Amino acid sequence: MDLKALRYFVAAVEAGSITGASERCFIAQPSITAAIQKLEEQLETKLLIRQKRGVSVTPEGSELYTTAKSLLQHAASIEKRFKAKQERRVLTISVPHSVSFNYLETLLQRLKQHTPNIQVKLIRGDASPEDSVDIRLTMDQRIQDDEEFIPCWRDRYCLITPKDHPLAYAEKINASDFNGMPFILRTFCDRNQEMMNFLEQLDISMEFVAEVDNEEWALSLVSSGLGLAIVPLPMDVEFSDRFFIKPLEQIEGVQGFERAIGVAIRYRQYSNPYFQQLANYLKQTMQEGKH
């Protein structure tokens, strides 16, 4: 039985969709679908039921999931046992507070695929010149002249409100609707002041009820009903159970804002073949993920 097909199947079950499995495994969706179909043919049973929004697991699929998960973990332990004798590469990464943990998690998965015996050290926040940092997970507007930027994700700024908020049911939202509304202020965001200046020009006054220094706090406080927030979200993000989401460009009187998230590598690092290979790998996997 093909371990790769089992890995794709497990990813589809855990992600709840073929799209999610594709992003997790960094492989095109048709390859995921073909592998799972071949697995179903081999076992002569239906494992997943395709639906409009994702997939659901059949009883047989649920049984296979438990067995496959254990098998894949065992296979990974065997691989680690024999690779543990190899020299461990240590990679230091800086991650600013304005980058979601989901992006860091995905990057760590990719690094482990590229360098299985890697040891990652994290610097939370912007790296200072004296910090010894190998790569940076950062935004396009923070790239330095001596760095190459490898774009991996694209965010657009959106208004998010609790599902029970009046704006969640409004047919149209106007910038003037922000007046007097309780907002969560994201003090760490580069674009925050730019947006505040834009709204001030429109004589829009928002009431800030909390200040946060990371994305997770902002999302949690909105979910709790404390206030609204303007946050950067992936283009295809869905928080249907937690929030009402409205891209800024769809709000009358408000301009849209976007940003790219990716990996920054200093050009001088390319004298080391490892970093050149890593850069090429990240570029390739991102191209595959966009199919």
Give a description of the structure.
The chain contains eight helices and eleven strands. Strand 3, helix 5 and strand 4 form a beta-alpha-beta unit. The mean pLDDT is about 85. Helix 1 packs across helix 2. The chain is α/β, with parallel strands linked by helices. The strands form three sheets. Strands 3, 4, 5, 6, 9, 10 and 11 form a seven-stranded mixed sheet that branches. Strands 1-2 form a two-stranded antiparallel ribbon. Strands 7-8 form a two-stranded parallel ribbon. The radius of gyration is 22 Å and the shape is globular.
Question: What features would you highlight for this structure?
Answer:
11 strands; two-stranded antiparallel sheet; 8 helices; 291 residues; 7-stranded mixed β-sheet; alpha/beta
Can you give me a brief rundown of this structure?
This protein is α/β, with parallel strands linked by helices and 291 residues long. The chain has 8 helices and 11 strands.
The rough form would be described as globular
- The N- to C-terminal Cα distance equals 27 Å
What is the CA-atom radius of gyration, in angstroms?
22 Å
Structural class: alpha/beta
Helical coverage, percent range: 25-40%
Mean pLDDT: 86
Total helical segments: 8
Task: Report the oligomer.
Answer: single chain
Number of strands: 11
Q: Please describe the biggest sheet, giving its number of strands, its sense, and whether it closes into a barrel.
A: 7 strands, mixed
Low-confidence stretches: none
The secondary-structure element order is HHHEEHEHEEEEHEHEEEH
What share of the residues does DSSP label as strand, in percent?
Answer: 25-35%
